[in-house]
Amino acid sequence: xxxxxxxxxxxxxxxxxxxxxxxxxxxxxxxxxxxxxxxxxxxxxxxxxxxxxxxxxxxxxxxxxxxxxxxxxxxxxxxxxxxxxxxxxxxxxxxxxxxxxxxxxxxxxxxxxxxxxxxxxxxxxxxxxxxxxxxxxxxxxxxxxxxxxxxxxxxxxxxxxxxxxxxxxxxxxxxxxxxxxxxxxxxxxxxxxxxxxxxxxxxxxxxxxxxxxxxxxxxxxxxxxxxxxxxxxxxxxxxxxxxxxxxxxxxxxxxxxxxxxxxxxxxxxxxxxxxxxxxxxxxxxxxxxx
Length: 290
Known about the structure:
By secondary structure, the chain is mainly α. It has one domain: MetI-like (MetI-like fold). It is built from 14 helices and no strands. The longest helix has about 35 residues. It is globular and about 75 Å long. It starts with a helix and ends in an 8-residue tail after the last helix.
């Protein structure tokens, strides 16, 4: 018995954790190491001594204050526009039957796959000073100056972002609306409830988780949006990502650029945490959020 116990083979060591090493190495090399270099540039004095002097200098500049305000203002207005437009479009596609509604929903979904700068270029070609709309109006009324001049402003950026990011609200809303029992709506309608009351008491409560999750995601995306603002070239509209680009690429002043980049990363991570909390709290899976 003792010999049999001694001769029993030992269990092989568990080496399954080794499969985690290659992806972690790639992520560390391509993401965390550059992020570490950026943080070190902003948090050290050139001799690897940690200091917050660079942050204090950047935080007290009027340029940073303006960029931070523009970033928050554009993100909030764009997210609110995405929520409002997504809710209205989802209502029409889900509860107003008409031929081709599914095809329209699928067509809107394709906006998610398109680069954001394409929408900025489209807005410029259509509504810009030399765009199609201004050309038609100038020929029609004989104007010497473009009558439509909103693209190169904060409103132009907001409208472009609403157009691009509304599908991120629309998709979970359509999934949430598909779970609503239409019998509830029919019963409420037969009892004399009007459309606004049905929306307020039946549809809106079911849509609230999807609205919050989609709105939080849009807020995260619009805070970090760069391509739309750069390609539209709105006058005086500088956001945090664009300020990082100006400092690093245009001016070659890397330390302030790294400081602003770290602040933008912290802001993004905070919004992402909010997004995850909203999904966990209100049931993103039930709202159709992926």
